[in-house]
Amino acid sequence: MSNSVIEESNFTPFLKKLTIYCSGGPFLDGYILVIIGAALVQLGPHLHLDAYWSGMIGASSLAGLFLGGLVFGYLTDIIGRKTMYTLDLLALVIGSILQMFISTPMELVILRFIIGMAVGADYPIATSLLAEFAPQKYRGLMLGGLIAMWYVGATAADIVGYVLVDIPNGWRWMLGSAAIPAILLIIGRWGTPESPRWLLSKNRVEEARAVMKKVYGPEADIDDCEEEIKQTRFGKIFEAGYFRRTIFVGAFWMCQIVPLFAIYTFGPVILEMCGLGHGKEAMLGDIILSALFLIGIVPALMFVNSVGRRRLIIWSFVFMTLGMLILGVFPDASAWVIIAGFAIYALASGGPNILEWIYPNELFPTDIRATAVGMGTAISRIGACIGTYLLPNWLQTYGLGTTMLIMTGITFVGLIACIALAEETNGLTLAQAGSVSKSVNQ
């Protein structure tokens, strides 16, 4: 164990506040993705949407997430975490408000693409900042706990949609409502210091020392950062050692996200096809499904240190594949069988969910950490975008059972990727975990 003040710090009020405000991005992502599903109940007839436009609207924010993560992750490693920490949310606020006044499907597609870029940018910005302040003992909990807010946001969107779905033009208020938490988040994040690890990696020694003493006390100094001066190079994530990790993060994240985003975006439609209610009843079922995903986070956070990252992600994918297989093989079974399939998949998803931000932040060093998180986000959203766009057509052409079997195959590929590529980073300092030579496989 390192004697670093950062690695051995207690869970101070500053770290608690930072964790809360860093979780705002995942909250907004969950909210924005799910609220469109509820809004489409009214928007479908209002804009005369067919399967093509429904898929385009569902996929547009995911396409924005791809570009936002890819571009702004790299920029964050170059110009810093603090600079981007609040500015990215301004675009989200403006885009959310403008959604209330759209009159064509294309306008909505464009605005949701812009909003997606803002959320995609926030992932590498906020998670890198949090990882670089987090003590080793609490790093898994702090980073993994962020995803819980994704499901809180998703559940909140379900509730808002349920309340507004019967109100004339309720879709306008659904889509514009995301601006409210975004504005509160901008206010809360104001004044957050820059990462001392990033400052030191850019040879801004005195600034790094000042932040260390402000956050960790007068006894702290730059030696506690365990950082070397390095130049950010995008291509480093494709070099020996790190390329394997880039493939792993992108593969497991994509294979977990494709079914999840598809289910969330079109949750009420899928539940109706399963015979689990219609209209508001199906939306109520979607709220319960969101709660199951959220509940699955709890045991994952409990075991991420004791069981380890590698075992947790492998066994999670085993049970996720089983749950999706039940839905594919028995699409016309009794309600209890369908519920069991959804419940197994949702609860088991907790492992990969919390590791989406733990793994890329631990497996890569400071000079390319945000770049790696952004790349993982981008890769995952390529598949999520395609899957969300194709899902309405798959359901219409192949039916529910075959569509769920396709999702089963995608989840199984994720399992194979984890068995072949997952590393164990539990118990390592952030510097050790990000070093190719010091990583530990188990």
From TrEMBL:
Protein's name in the database: Inner membrane metabolite transport protein YgcS
Keyword Amino-acid biosynthesis: no
UniProt keywords, alphabetically: Membrane, Transmembrane, Transmembrane helix, Transport
Principal location class: membrane
Native organism taxonomy: Bacteria, Bacillati, Bacillota, Negativicutes, Selenomonadales
Membrane topology recorded in Swiss-Prot or TrEMBL: Multi-pass membrane protein
Domain (Major facilitator superfamily (MFS) profile) ranges: 18-426
UniProt organism field: Sporomusa silvacetica DSM 10669
Gene: ygcS_2
Pfam families in alphabetical order: Sugar_tr (PF00083)
Signal peptide: none
Entry-linked PROSITE patterns: MFS, SUGAR_TRANSPORT_2
Annotated InterPro entries: MFS_dom (IPR020846), MFS_sugar_transport-like (IPR005828), MFS_trans_sf (IPR036259), Myo-inositol_Transporter (IPR050814), Sugar_transporter_CS (IPR005829)
Segments crossing the lipid bilayer: 20-40, 52-75, 87-104, 110-131, 143-165, 171-192, 246-267, 287-305, 312-330, 336-359, 371-392, 398-422
Family: Belongs to the major facilitator superfamily. Sugar transporter (TC 2.A.1.1) family.
Intracellular or extracellular location(s): Cell membrane
